[in-house]
Amino acid sequence: MQDIKDFQIQHQNNYKNAIREILKNNSKILVEEDIMSLINKPPLDSMDIIKCKFLDLAKKQKVVLDTKKLDKLIDNYRKDIKKDILIIKDERIKLFDKIIESFNPVKDNDVIKFNKKDFNDFNKKVKKELKDKIILKINNNIVNNVNTVFTKDTDDKKQEKISSDIIKFLTKTYVKQLLESVDFKVLVKDTTLINGVKEQGERYIFTKMNSYLLNEDKMK
Q1: What is the pTM of this model?
Q2: Average pLDDT of span 177-203
Q3: Alpha-carbon distance 6 to 40, whole Å?
Q4: What is the Cα–Cα distance from 44 to 41, expressed in whole angstroms?
């Protein structure tokens, strides 16, 4: 026969596991769907801001680009940066799982809390690392190979002008816009996670205070 203490421990473990599940699902959607949607090849070429910028600059200079090679450069960049983005999910889960695991209630109304400071510190670190990695992957996959998208008969000055402008766009405007979009996705999911954990805590306390199996006073 299980006594009240056993049921209380089981209830607490179930609570921790429920929070873990919320954390995992939230982090998975954030990284694999929300952030990755900003990197994945869009369904229409007109939605591909990198390719459109290349073509727009070439059009202004009346230059025809090798679109197959251009597509390859952009695809290589996407594949490369995706590996780094996926790591964010595991790091986020690992950080907040430590908070879950360390939960050891002293008062009856103690619950697991994810503080905004924890998110702010983590997000600041991730943003800095992500910015550096995006710039590195852009340089490795696109900037260093930008000359391959021009045909042999392209005027050197026009080629140099397009290359200079696209590099400036990618390393400044594109990175800034991408990180701003990531910030928004993160803010939404952080808020959702905080609220989900709060709701789970309310259920935990309600059951703890009202269940006959968990409360000695209810047994009397």
Answers
A1: 0.88
A2: 95
A3: 48
A4: 8
CA 94 remoteness from chain centre: 14
Three state DSSP letters for the chain: CCCHHHHHHHHHHHHHHHHHHHHHHHHHHHHHHHHHHHCCCCCCHHHCHHHHHHHHHHHHCCCCECHHHHHHHHHHHHHHHHHHHHHHHHHHHHHHHHHHHCCCCCCCCCCCCCCHHHHHHHHHHHHHHHHHHHHHHHHHHCHHHHHHHECCCCCHHHHHHHHHHHHHHHHHHHHHHHHHHHHHHHHHHHHHHHHHHHHHHHHHHHHHHHCCCCCHHHHC
Burial of 158 per CB tally in 10 Å (0-12, 13-18, 19+): middle
pLDDT at 213: 57
- 108-150: per-residue pLDDT in tens? 889 999 988 889 999 999 999 999 999 999 999 999 999 999 9
| Alpha carbons 87 and 139: distance in angstroms, whole number | 20
Tokens 């990531």 appear where?
A: 182
pLDDT at 45: 81
Per-residue pLDDT at 99:
94
Dihedral (CA of 39, 41, 47, 48) sign? positive
**What's the pLDDT band for 11 if we cut at 50, 70, 90?**
confident
What are the tokens at 25?
Answer: 């699902």
